[in-house]
Amino acid sequence: MTIAESLLPEFDHEMATTRRLLERVPEDRFGWQPHEKSMTLGRLASHLAEMPDWGYEVCTGDEIDLAPQG
Asked: Does this model's pTM top 0.85?
């Protein structure tokens, strides 16, 4: 069994849990943030939703640039 094959069940479980969480984020509260320096709830939800794609890119790409933008 490869490392990927051994990790896939855990990944599937975590994605199902994350999906259930994101489905419960109320759209009318996307702009809420607990502190002025915090991400809004909508941005945080988007960040969570984008993480699997980022992980795929990191694992399959030839290189990744982690330098800050700007």
From this structure: no
Domain boundaries, the chain: 3-60
What are 31's two structure tokens? 């702009």
Q: 44 exposed, middle or buried (CB, 10 Å; 0-12, 13-18, 19+)?
A: middle
The pair of structure tokens assigned to 64 is: 């990744």
**Tokens representing residue 34 in the block:** 């607990």
- Residue 30 CB-density burial (10 A; 0-12 exposed, 13-18 middle, 19+ buried): middle
Contact 41, 25 (CB under 8 A): yes
| pLDDT tens digits for range 10-47 | 999 999 999 999 999 999 999 999 999 999 999 999 99
